[in-house]
Amino acid sequence: MKRLIAFIAVLSVLAPAVWAQDVQFTCSVDRTEVAVGEQFQVTYSLSGGSLRRYSDFNAPNLNSNFLTLHGPSTSQQMQIINGRVSTTISWSYVLQPRSVGSFTVPSASINYDGSRLSSNTVRIKVTKAVPQSGNQQQQQGGSTQSRNIDLGDELFIRAIANKSDVYIGEPITVTYKLYSRVAFQLDNPIKLPRMVGFWSEDVETPTQLRPRVEVYKGRQYETFMLRKVLYFPTQTGKLTIDPFEVGTTVRVRKPRERRGNDAFDRFFSDPFFDRYENVKKSLLTQKLNVNVRALPETDKPENFKGVVGSYDMNVQLDRRKLKANETATLTVKLSGQGNIRLLDEPSITFPAGVDHYDPTISEDVHPEGGTMTGSKTFEYILVPRYAGKVTLPPVTFSYFDLESKQYITLHSASFELDIAEGDARQQAGQLEQEYIDYLSEDVRPIRTVSGPLPSSEDPGIPLPLMALFYLMPVVATVGALLWKRRYDAARGDVAGMKRRRATRVAEKHLQNSRRYLEQGETDTYYLEIARALWGYVQDKLGLSTSATTMAAIVDALRKDGVDDALSAQLQKALDRVEFARFSPTRANEQEMQSLYDETREAIISLEEAMRRSA
Amino acid sequence: MMRIFCIVILSLLSVAVVQAQPRDRFDEATSAYSNAEYKQAIQLLHDLENEGYASFPVYYNLGNAYYKNGNLGAAMLYFEKALLQEPGNADVLHNIRVVRARTRDRVEPIPLLFFVRWWNDVQNAYLPATFFSWSVAFLWLLAASLFLFFGFRRVLLRRIALVASIATGVFFILTVVLYSTRLEQISAHSNAIIMPDETTVLSTPDATGVESFVVHEGLKVQILEVREEMYHIRLADGKNGWIPRSAAERI
Fold first, then answer.
1. How far is it, in rounded angstroms, from Cα A86 to Cα A88?
2. Which of A502, A506, A592, A613 is deepest in the core (most CB within 10 A)?
3. Contacts with A358 from chain B: Cβ below 8 Å
4. Is the complex ipTM more than 0.90?
């Protein structure tokens, strides 16, 4: 019976680890055996999944067997393992057992994504005496033991500061480095202590630890840069940078007890068969002492606001000429090295009659390479209210230069503003006036609806409908064009066909007339010439034979944008052809030849003119 | 037996009462409003909103009820939502100014270039569906002018058709861009209203952020970026910073 209970107990402890592969809600203790009056820590943690989806952590009643000294304190961790982000949120309590015996740390429950998860329970053995190290029971599900082992020089972290004697505001770069000669694993996310007297900024936090070999005190170590932090002292005097703690798990060889001297045992006592165990070890750096000196009092500028570093100032005004009530922007950019995040705005005295607003501040900080460099930009919007000339006095900015150990004051040029008479409509305080106007007003009455209440609708048009609407005009155009072509072909598009074929027809007639000219057949020659020219003009201009008069031709030519000189040339040719055709006297061969040339030329130039205007 | 029958009838009746017509519940909210029972009106209207009747009258009346109940932030939120449903509605614009006059922040917008201002004015004055219908209309005009250009040979006609197709093509593209940017603006919910009395705006989203300035209930801000539990916001005057998500409600 006892065995059965023990079996069930073991199963119930292991169960959550089996079924919850993604999201786990577990209970763990830092040790399973404590003495009365000693403290131990219980942690309920939810890991994996998205932390946004949990809700409603239901704390167990711990006070029946234990005394809650502290808690619950919650913490969140985020780890990136092989590119996967895993987050853990945990609630921890510091407890003290009330009496000797064996107790169960009850389970807590939490709501995750609608379902309720319960953690496992853990048994705690409470003894009278302080338990001896090495005599501890293993924790549930893991092989991690918490034991105070002395690793000595094998594994430690150091804080290395680049200087220990600084002026107030001068940054100290502290590099936290881990030195190791054993296999280890970092547990806790590295958390910096909150310190009084310093303003800190992480400048380098490697996401992956890269080992480097370094010799320290005559021994060779693998070193890992854990973090680089800039500390800006904000107080003077002797300050300390608190130790920085890192939790690690170390694999150590577990010493085997040798029972007898038999061969079997000797065989297994070979180091190859040595058992290893994981031991938690927290590492602390040494404290760093820093002497922070005050800045010298001599030559301290009046407008000095405690800025330390080295800076440049760039001041720009976007426009010098404007009307009253229009806006101009004054941009002051401070760039350099130092605590850029804490930079105050430079001192600017704005002349009377120029309204200005709180500046828009933008930062561009690069905390890399052990220093903080970057820039801070202040943008002031200025609104001159009256016409005239106004001078903006120079912008000044003072800082203590760390290189030369002296105060430096930067001055900008002064700017002259030329303000013209403004638009009367744009009165000062227009915005404020609007606010005042509406203060006395009430909201308009509420709406009533007639008919059914309209339901909410999606503002977007569904994609298929959109495609349909857009495709319809395209399809319609293509369809209409195809239809038009078929319609033209069916109707014979007499005019169009004639126009397209006019040149070829004219050419044919001209060729015929040339042949007749050579053969001396004068009548047919004239007929062909006339057909060539008249036919061409009619076809090209779309005139019917019966409607072709000289006036109609001139009209049509003008409509088609043919210039008057060409029109005149064509008229002359037409006249000559008519005259020659119906003249009672027969012309000689030379004259007929020149008539042929003239006609041909007229057709060619008309052809060119039509092509140009088409 | 009679008792069971009565119970059945009564329970049927009560179901009918609970599932009253949306229209009736809207009227109920209206009368609650006129009886100065603003909390009840808000409750009824919210129920309607959640049931899929999130239309202009519901948003508008919610804005009024919240205003009368003294919740300036929520009033502003619902008036802005109503404005998205009916852009340029004079009553909503009036009410928004009334609420703004009572909020504590006075934010002067950065003067914009005139064409940017025109673009914004046009974009905010119509519904996405309106821009879509315009774009379809312009596409038909474009199609017609292309038909004239390709289908006919009259020189003058073709010239006119070419100019017309370029013009309608430009207008078509403009309206498509207006449609998509307006739709994006609405569905991305890139604007939000500050809800708590007072919220400190931080310079960065993490613990090292310094307090930049303070905003108050009812202020409209633009959301530039979302990170973890923080919104990166920008005010109309260009000031920007980070606030917790809980401090702002997206429109």
1. 7
2. A506
3. 213, 239
4. no
